[in-house]
Amino acid sequence: MTEPTTNESSADAATAESKAGPSHFIREIIIDDLKTGKYGGRVQTRFPPEPNGYLHIGHAKSICLNFGLAAEFGGKCNLRFDDTNPSKEETEYVESIKENVRWLGFDWEDRLYHASDYFDQLYEWAIQLIKAGKAYVCDLTADEVREYRGTLTEPGRESPYRIRTVEENLDLFQRMRAGEFPNGARTLRAKVDMTSPNLNMRDPVMYRILHAPHHQTGDKWPIYPMYDWAHGQSDSIEGVTHSICTLEFEDHRPLYDWYLDQLGIHHPQQIEFDRLNLTHTVLSKRKLLTLVQQGYVRGWDDPRMPTLAGIRRRGYTPEAIRAFCGRIGVSKTNGVIELSLLEHAVREDLNKRAPRAMAVLRPLRVVIENYPEDLVEEMDAVNNPEDAAMGSRKVPFSRVLFIEQDDFRENPPKQYYRLAPGREVRLRYGYFIKCTGVVKDDQTGEVVELRCSHDPATRGGNAPDGRKVKSTIHWVSAAHAVDAEVRLYEQLFARENPNDDSEGLDFTAYLNPNSLEALTGCKLEPSLRDVRPGDGYQFERLGYFCADPDSAPGRPVFNRTVALRDTWAKIEKAQKQNAG
Ligand code: ATP
Ligand code: MG
Question: Which entry of 19, 38, 42, 50 is annotated as an active-site residue?
């Protein structure tokens, strides 16, 4: 199969990347439509968020799909706020959504729309349906409407108001619009089929009375269109060709089709795909709002949140998220993706790009007794072994250093190759050192300092006599170290599926109490003194870290983006399992 020519000039880096990954059924549909000239060779998509919360990683899947496919086929993608629900929408959400889409690397250019832009047109179309005898004003209460609707096994009953004349309907609808009736007094309903097996077709409500100001239209409207009445027509107005949405809208498609056919207007093709679900994660906006409002996290951009604002603060990159979305693809069945796959994509991207640095999170003092008191040497350290172009930097070495507490054991267990009494290891970019003594706290017996000697012939990390050491550890010079706070994160939910309510517990019952560990008194190499929020590094042997907006000049705060795979941790775990 030959792919149609792509308009490369309009495809930016983001789009070129989102082509990576396996092809999928939506791409195949578009390729077919282009072949048959179904929409005159046009591809028009849109991303339609409801501005009632922050975007999350699930939305990223939809964004990458809609913007990615449009650009791949030389088309356009609009950003449209589906803002039919005035009471839930806030300007804060609108602004964050725009920022997040841009951050992900996509551009709606001048095509920023709102469903509320179309309220006048939707109202006109409602009048058209009334005149055609296809819509009526109904006085049933919300409860009665529900009761009349029937169930999956029982047909619905027709509303007694269904037989109102066109004149009466027009009069009542215009008075609804004029604000004559209180909230909930009446609705406008489509006259479809109360016996349809599809509940969405049983005379769905098109308009409700709601005296509430709207963030776009102010006090203009006392009636608001229902989402189902607004959505398909908004797509139609925008000339959308492929209206891509998640699977739960499959049952709504017949209704959208019905509206478009009754009105005789441009008919986009709706295509449903599977929502992203991730292990250890909740993606419902209602649940995310609960976490924020009840203070389980520090805000929408808490680095533990699956929101784009949160994972950005955590240090996830747009490149990694786009690669992840390309890799998971789309399908017709809902599943659950392992959180570790997302973390893998983040590691893979940062490994290529993040400059390396040395940082000690839980410091243990090391005094090199045979190193001169006042000597400071500038050691050459490679910035990124994956990318020679990133060059090298100087790291100061001196007599007193910090190493990780974890890199020393007084009584080393089997397969533990790091520092121990009498043992020699390599200090990365430094010297071989050997542990010659241990200083303990009188009271607690805790090891507080190591006495070591270095071999001056091993400068740079190699012994001229060819002798080997089994371990290389990182370090920071005590006199030059920058004090920092470092925040370590674990999964926000301990349980793989926090959405499972089979035990009758609220999802918050499954929050991981250890999801945040804030370490103070961490020691960083001096090049990290003045990092800016968002700067990302690989701290050698520890993982990827990103400077937090809480950083102050000379007082960095870092978030751990994702840990490296720690081989010792794996061995230790296996040993424990064997023992237990
Ligand atoms: P929620 O049910 O949490 O309120 P939503 O689907 O109502 O989420 P919208 O703002 O309406 O959120 O979503 C905008 C677009 O993003 C829709 O097209 C929706 O299908 C898509 N989307 C939302 N969540 C996901 C997800 N987890 N995976 C893929 N696409 C998603
Ligand atoms: Mg929605």
Answer: 50
